[in-house]
Design brief:
Chain lengths: 407, 407
Amino acid sequence: SIDGQRFWSSLLAMAEIGPTANGGSCRLALTEEDAAGRHLLIEWCEALGCTLRVDRVGNLFFRRAGRRDDLDPVACGSHLDTQPKGGRFDGILGVLAGLEVFRTLHDQGIVTERPLELIVWTNEEGSRFAPAMVASGTYAGEFSEAYTLAREDRDGVTLGESLEVTGFAGEMPVGEPCLASFFELHIEQGPVLEEEREAIGVVTGVQGMRWFDVTLRGQSAHAGPTPMAYRRDALAACARLIDRLQGHALADISGGTKVTFGCLEIDSPSRNVIPGEVRLTVDLRHVVETELDALEARFQRELAELAEGFGIETASERIWASPVVNFDAGCIDAVERATQAQGVAYRRMMSGAGHDAVYVSRVAPTSMIFIPCRDGISHNEAEYASPEHCALGAQVLFDAMLERASL
Amino acid sequence: SIDGQRFWSSLLAMAEIGPTANGGSCRLALTEEDAAGRHLLIEWCEALGCTLRVDRVGNLFFRRAGRRDDLDPVACGSHLDTQPKGGRFDGILGVLAGLEVFRTLHDQGIVTERPLELIVWTNEEGSRFAPAMVASGTYAGEFSEAYTLAREDRDGVTLGESLEVTGFAGEMPVGEPCLASFFELHIEQGPVLEEEREAIGVVTGVQGMRWFDVTLRGQSAHAGPTPMAYRRDALAACARLIDRLQGHALADISGGTKVTFGCLEIDSPSRNVIPGEVRLTVDLRHVVETELDALEARFQRELAELAEGFGIETASERIWASPVVNFDAGCIDAVERATQAQGVAYRRMMSGAGHDAVYVSRVAPTSMIFIPCRDGISHNEAEYASPEHCALGAQVLFDAMLERASL
Ligand SMILES: NC(=O)NCCC(=O)O
Ligand SMILES: NC(=O)NCCC(=O)O
């Protein structure tokens, strides 16, 4: 009953704002391009008779009136900002699917019992202002309004200043309105649905994540005259750590354990110098919190062993942790029923990545809907989801929202 | 019989040209500072009545006449150029020890049978103009004069232009004069002599070296939603390679095998992105050429196995190779006898690093003398050798040269 063609056209129209050389989008949070994207959405929503409220961190709330406007709304949404070389789907899909839900209801003259709300969360990507998901986090009480407004970009411009410049410094207190339910449609950003030929992921929660900065300090020395036995090679130690933890994660046949080393930097690298100091980032994830604890303990143990075995000093700092999230059973079931109604192959799954829904789930019944994306590629101009999968996702969102919006 | 105090003073005086913040020296090849260092030496040598000839790649040859000037000279030397944050001894030691030999002979009115030659090789370090040891290599026929003059620094200035600017573009054809013997005194640049409490290394040759640029190409993907089993992680593969080869080298109890990974770079690194491409430098060394062949074969085998095990593509390019060098038995023995005359602990050893003597040894009977340096540290402002060890090294050089300069 939603219009897949119209939905696809709106995705392409949004992608024309801040287009990149290789078919992606660049709309960094609260830049001119991001503002232009927001204005296009505002235009579209106003044509449907929705009312817009903007909170003090720039989150947009488009309300479609229901029969019982005294009740909390059923909401959906995601984000419109992108990575510097971002794709056309990450975030945008979930926002414009909400628009498509509103348009379909409008065409068919349907008025739901509960009001509906389409939400655009500010600065989800964290590319311009770190950390990521900061405005949905503020809404959910994880960050204070003052903290969020003071986030600075590379040039020292604050998030608060950018809200003023773009005209998105709203009046509504952050944390309003209360939501009866929240649904976020998103591309999977991984390869599982595509590989398993499944069309929908019914997302039951989000795995726990912990980020670490690690330093390994040995002694730099000339590669030629320094015998192996005398060396305190920080890179050799680092390689052992990576290989051990990688092997451990691969050995977990449940697939629950994930370890990633995204950045590795040698201090003053030179071809014929033994690395004296290496900095490494570690990203540990697990779907079970106690297993994540065990993974962190193992990582610390391996690190301590290196210090002995390689004659080096090690330091690690945990810079971020996001606990395992379990979404609301009622919202999950609503998504599953809506999926089953489409008669497509699907799976219940945990999200591997963080999303605005992580924070929102702390204050409102929440779940997510995933669709496959080509080769699992995301945060990349080549990001792609088929029109069929996009339409299917929007339809599931439509059905789940309508179920929850009735009394 | 050499004057250790005078020698030490000349080392300190040279260090005052291009001094660095932390007590080191910066005299990059053929800069103003390097030229000033050369002029100081010229002044000192002219005071001794030496004659200077300069070849077309700027190598300096100071000749002290002998009784039989029809015979080839006995030579010593090293380099005066330094790393950007170099020490006060690497290279300088060998040049100023030659000066001290000349001064001592001058004071004592000694005239040798063969003439003597003190040589300053241009651009040994390769910091400003790659490759290293290029001017001694040209002298020995490894590089053409045209190739060497065309070497460019970071700003596109050629070695040839810098010779003109500094006034060191000489007239003597490169390859002249023939040398009866060549001795190079140098700091060890490693920890062995210090650890073993030995005062002199009688250098019997130089280990073979091979340099490689390696690329590992997998697939970058989001750290969160990509299961371990689906990954093509270029860094995890790289870590396995490093750990395997490191283990192999450590297992060689002869100590002959050395492997070093000096540079490792991830393409577009990000904390929550699986590295898609990694570039690594590999430095393989061995004191036996056939063992170095076997080491290279093992490295290539490990690399091929990675490609399979990690689902990645690998490429490696051998960008430099320096075969094992065995110095001249007569020159080695002369150094050993001179060392024994001092009654100090010493060892016969292979040089771990390349030196100008590597190339010179192709065209003249050659050997080297090592003295300990503190903590084995070199290419570093903290580089240090004691006045006692410096004096001892100069004395051994003096005795070895005098032995070879008689008929
Ligand atoms: N979706 C997304 O990229 N979130 C950022 C946090 C994470 O790495 O999962
Ligand atoms: N002495 C020195 O640093 N030589 C450069 C070549 C090498 O790495 O051994």
